[in-house]
Specification:
Mean pLDDT: 88
Family: Belongs to the DNA polymerase type-A family.
GO molecular function: 3'-5' exonuclease activity; 5'-3' exonuclease activity; DNA binding; DNA-directed DNA polymerase activity
Catalytic activity: DNA(n) + a 2'-deoxyribonucleoside 5'-triphosphate = DNA(n+1) + diphosphate
Shape: globular
Keywords: DNA damage, DNA repair, DNA replication, DNA-binding, DNA-directed DNA polymerase, Exonuclease, Hydrolase, Nuclease, Nucleotidyltransferase, Transferase
Low-confidence stretches: 281-286
Number of helices: 35
Protein name: DNA polymerase I
Length: about 900
DNA sequence: TCGGTTACGTAC
DNA sequence: GACGTACGTAACCGAG
């Protein structure tokens, strides 16, 4: 018997409103608004697809006042009546429901929620499990052993345990809880001045709303008692308003059973509404990629034939489809291959039916491996893909490692224009080729499950995946000659492509954090923050949201009358500079600053890092992005391990939580002053060249010049100022910016800059020449010929032009430094392998490489790495690398 | 309620 | 407007 199959009850009206508000207005060809229908249909199809329910009902509100309005005039009075452009969509929604033959629940004078409640209670009472599909908290009052609420948007199931976890209250207590709080969006009054925290406390204390009013005298806070007394009526009225009616007549179980939908009617509706994604007949438009040469490979014979064909080259284009974006858990669903723009092949391997069973008619992995290995391991056959950093570890973990030259269209595109808004395959195909590729969302029909691709039918997957390899091939035909034309081939093949497998390995390896240490830090920071919060409220004379710059500005400048500093677009700036300057006049700014620092560290690192520990490896695996920055640097995300704090003592505590594995040590090797050395080389400035060649402290030398003192008399403060100027120069500094940075007058700053350029005249000339060249060429390059376009360099808009000028100065320096560290990354890993050393590269932080090294190899590794890094490029000044060893990141 | 924008702060 | 390159968090806003 199928008694245990749940009945799904959808909160139809809620999703109509949600779709109407959340989705940008859409219309069909005849101008009918359709976005609410579209959003609703998507939710419905998602439930049908993901849950394949046998029993399903959908509840709707009926327009017009209901009994709640009679009870309380203001009920939902803040809600405008249904807008016309929504009302006109309702009939189509009903038609879609009707075409699916789904039971429709509605009744004059009641809301959808009441029908859901009545139906759910009745079915549950008959022993049928019920799943209410809704994101509305008011429905949580229904939750019981047999009634669950599912919010498909967040994919959260609320059973009694989940309710208790979220609210610290049982489902039966929620009504009273919400009654106390009220709900401003529905104009449910509640008790004024009681929010979630107080409401939770009261209900926990007294058990229920009645309990609270029966035991008012036990409530110690006089203020709170007053509030409760004053709004007693409202509290009980609120409860009535949000209590759902549970005894309306609703259908019997069998009436929810859904027969086959009326496909013809549905197609007719979708066509009329212009829901092209849902219209079955494939719509071929002028821009869609031609799909007639796409083939499914489902037999060994076919596989043999295509391998034979593909082995002829001249290149093997490939793309993998998987169950996850995380290569550590991703399983192969399919592989697409091509070597011409005409024919492409899709090998289905891991497709599943809705029950999760592997489909028949697929190639067993072992068989695919047997035939593909000669192809994939052919050292003379180049392998082309888009973002191979993703495919490489997937193929490797499935026993299909790649050999031969690697070519990547994403990297080619990046080198041709690193500032491109998107380097995604579909965006590039559209932009460069005018060809529209099927999106992932389309092929998975919006399925939000992480492994959604496994449930795509092989035929549809074939079309999608083959488009990708053909798209990559077509892009390559365009990019390859361009790489040659712009002298980028060496940079592409020997540097960026060589880096790919190294980044794969780094991401795979990950880094260990000491979870217990972070836990302690979290508690420690939490306590300090609570103290600071008290202090801040006392100093401010009121409670407010410390994280809100707007509220803070109000307190500092309006209430306390402190002098306003800079303004931002939206109000007064309260950034660290402003607060520091206010610290002399009042204690509040300093307390805010301390709070900011701590909460930043706690929220961004201490509390976030443990969440990112991988369940499989127990380590944290960042992504190193190779096509993001405009200058050629890498970036790091999820988490960003290139901005782990270092400057403050609190930051050091976080660094200390990054620990080397047992028996291993961290080795950090960083370039000394790499940016300034690159600038010295570019500028050929005698003073700078001499300083670096002599191994002098360049900040000290700058200090001596700008303060016009004997080097023996330079104070730490003077050196700090000089260091700021040295960095500022690289960024294309102005007197204004330097003054702001150092709290100097503009005149003083200007004097320092003048003296700097007087001494380092070559630097000034370099800057002028590079800007001039950028004006002429429209781009700048690095020493390895990496380019960055500067479309604004001749702009008539002064601000954008000047920005481009600063970029023209900074990019060759920052970009060359990026070239150097990338060369170093390749050289260091290669030398380590050659020497049989076992160090693993974990991090690259712009001028620094961090390795995890077996303790016994630490000295040899340090020497190899240092030598490799210092020798990668011959500049006119030496490259100097310092190495440090420690068991955690605070010590390196 | 949600995605986009703004302000801010961490790194090099 | 004013010092370059990133990424992430929290608040806020607009949509109606």
């Amino acid at each position: 018997m199928n008694q245990q199959e749940p009945v799904y009850l959808i909160d139809g009206s809620a999703y109509i409103y949600r779709a109407y508000h959340a989705i940008a207005p859409l219309t069909n060809k005849s101008g009918l608004p359709t976005h609410a229908v579209y959003g609703f249909t998507n939710i419905l199809l998602r439930v049908l697809r993901e849950k394949a329910p046998r029993f399903l009902g959908i509840a709707f509100d009926v327009r017009g006042p209901n009994f709640r309005h009679e009870m309380y005039q203001a009920y939902k009075a803040n809600r405008p009546t249904m807008p016309d452009d929504l009302a006109c969509q309702i009939p189509y929604i009903k038609e879609i429901v009707a075409a699916h033959n789904i039971a429709c629940l509605e009744r004059q004078g009641y809301e959808a929620d009441d029908l859901l409640a009545s139906a759910a209670k009745k079915l549950a009472g008959q022993g049928h499990p019920v799943i209410v599909v809704s994101g509305d908290k008011d429905l949580l009052q229904l939750v019981s052993e047999s009634i669950t609420v599912w919010d498909p948007m967040r994919d959260v199931f609320m059973d009694p345990a989940a309710v208790r976890k979220k609210y610290n209250l049982g489902p039966e207590q929620l009504l009273d809880f919400f009654a106390l709080m009220g709900d401003s969006s529905d104009n449910v009054p509640g008790v004024a001045g009681i929010g979630p925290k107080t409401a939770e406390k009261l209900i926990t204390q007294c058990g229920s709303l009645d309990g609270i009013y029966q035991n008012l005298e036990t409530i110690s806070q006089a203020k709170l008692r007053e509030k409760l007394l004053a709004d007693r009526e409202n509290a009980f009225l609120s409860r009535k308003l949000i209590t759902l009616i549970e005894d309306l007549a609703t259908p019997e179980l069998q009436e929810y059973e859904i027969p086959e939908p009326n496909e013809e009617k549905l197609q007719e509706l979708y066509t009329f509404l212009d829901f092209s994604r849902l219209v079955k007949a494939p719509q071929t438009t002028a821009v869609a990629l031609e799909t007639k040469g796409f083939h499914l490979v489902q037999t060994e014979k076919a596989l043999q034939d295509i391998c034979q064909q593909l082995s002829k080259g001249p290149v093997l284009v490939l793309d993998t489809e998987t169950t996850s974006l995380d290569p550590l858990v991703a399983e192969l669903v399919g592989i697409s291959l091509c070597s011409t723009a005409e024919e492409a092949y899709y090998l289905p391997i891991g497709h599943r039916d809705s029950e999760g069973n592997l489909l028949a008619n697929q190639l067993p992995l072992a068989l695919a491996r047997e035939h593909l290995t000669p192809l994939f391991s052919d050292p003379n056959l180049p392998k082309l893909g888009h973002n191979l950093k993703f495919d490489l570890p997937i193929l490797e973990s499935h026993g299909l490692p790649l050999s031969g030259p690697l070519w990547d269209t994403m990297l080619a595109s990046y080198l041709l224009d690193p500032s491109r808004r998107s380097q995604k395959l579909d965006d590039l195909c559209l932009e460069m080729l005018g060809k529209r590729l099927t999106s992932f969302a389309e092929v998975t029909e919006g399925d939000k499950r992480p492994d959604s691709f496994a449930y795509v039918a092989p035929e549809a997957a074939k079309n999608y995946s083959c488009e990708d390899v053909i798209g990559a091939f077509l892009l390559w035909q365009r990019f390859h000659p361009q790489l040659e034309e712009f002298g980028l081939w060496k940079l592409f093949s020997s540097l960026e492509m060589a880096l790919v497998p190294i980044l794969v390995r780094m991401e795979q390896t990950g880094i260990t954090v000491d979870q217990a240490q972070l836990q302690r830090l979290s508690e420690d920071f939490g306590l300090q923050l609570a103290e600071l919060e008290k202090t801040i409220y006392a100093l401010a004379g009121e409670e407010f949201n410390i994280n809100s710059t707007r509220q803070l500005g109000e307190i500092l400048f309006a209430k306390l009358g402190l002098p306003q500093g800079r303004k931002t677009k939206t109000g007064y700036s309260t950034d660290v500079k402003v607060l520091e300057s206010l610290a002399r006049q009042h204690d509040l700014p300093a307390a805010i600053l301390a709070h900011r620092t701590l909460s930043k560290l706690k929220n961004t690192y201490v509390d976030k890092l443990p969440e990112l520990i991988h369940p499989k490896t127990g380590r944290i695996h960042t992504s190193f992005n190779q096509t993001v920055t405009a200058t050629g640097r890498l970036s790091s995300s999820n988490p960003n391990l290139q901005n782990i704090p270092i400057r403050t003592p609190e930051g050091q505590k976080i660094r200390a939580a990054f620990v080397a594995a047992p028996g291993q040590l961290f080795l950090s090797a960083d370039y000394s002053q790499i940016d300034l050395r690159v600038m010295a080389h570019y500028a050929q400035d005698p003073a700078l060249l001499t300083a670096f060649r002599a191994g002098e402290d360049v900040h000290n030398q700058t200090a001596a010049e700008i303060f016009r003192v004997n080097p023996a008399f330079i104070s730490p403060e003077m050196r700090r100022v000089a260091k700021t100027i040295n960095f500022g120069i690289i960024y294309g500094i102005s007197a204004f910016g330097l003054a702001a940075q150092l709290n100097l007058s503009r005149k003083e700053a200007a004097t320092f800059i003048e003296r700097y350029f007087a001494h380092y005249a070559g630097v000034k000339r370099f800057m002028e020449e590079i800007v001039e060249k950028a004006r002429k060429d429209g781009f700048v390059t690095t020493l390895l010929n990496r380019r960055r376009l500067l479309p604004d360099i001749n702009s008539s808009n002064k601000a954008s032009r000047e920005f481009a000028e600063r970029t023209a100065i900074n990019t060759p320096i920052q970009g060359t430094a990026a070239d150097i560290i990338k060369l170093a990354t390749i050289a260091a890993t290669q030398h380590l392998t050659e020497k049989g050393l076992h160090a693993k590269l974990l991090l690259q932080i712009h001028d620094e490489l961090v390795f995890e090294v077996p303790a016994a190899e630490i000295e040899a590794t340090g020497a190899v790495v240092k030598e490799a890094m210092e020798g990668v490029m011959q500049l006119d000044v030496p490259l100097v690398v310092n190495t440090v060893v420690g068991e955690n990141l605070a010590k390196v």
